[in-house]
Amino acid sequence: MNDNKSAYNAKIYDEHIINVLPYYTEYSAQVIDLVRNMGKADPKWLDTGCGTGTLVFRAREVFPDASFTLCDPSPKMLDEAKEKLQGGNIVFNNISSSELEYDSEFDVLTAIQCHHYYSFEEREEATRRCYNALRESGIYITFENIRMSTDASDDIALDRWVTFLREHGNSEEEVQMQLDRRGVETHPITIEQHLEILKRSGFSSVNLLWASYLQAGFWAIK
Question: The whole model's pTM is what?
Fold first, then answer.
């Protein structure tokens, strides 16, 4: 039984997600490289929708003096993160992005593959809460599933993803499960819509960080 809106439960999430999302490990590499170039060795960092804590596990190796707050709506995901991240300056909080109530506390805020479960309005509210949690000049980084700009291009991108899923060991039943979730359990939006939400949330600079297949990364400065 799944314990959040992911297709996989917390115990098996890490081993399956790399065969579902192309270049999944590149997300954390891009995040860490961007934060490294902020020039701050000990950032105060909030990771919302932290899942099993993989991003912070990797970030802690690069930023050993950073302080991390990890938030997730799934208690079982947080249990996995706690086991993975024993010791160090880490706080865990069982809440979603839409429940964040921090005010100007963090230098970095990351939201990786967690807001696509929201409706458009809910996603915008969650993004505003992320904005509020950042200090002035803080950086927000998010990676999300996306839609292409037209139905024709979206169909081509979906065909590419289906090929990836099959080539990475997913059964036809698992492939269909992923396709059936799109637009029902997950609600991807276009790159242009992502950038517009960031602008409306108040960020002074909004940027595309990385894109491939049906995923993209964005970063913004408060």
Answer: 0.94
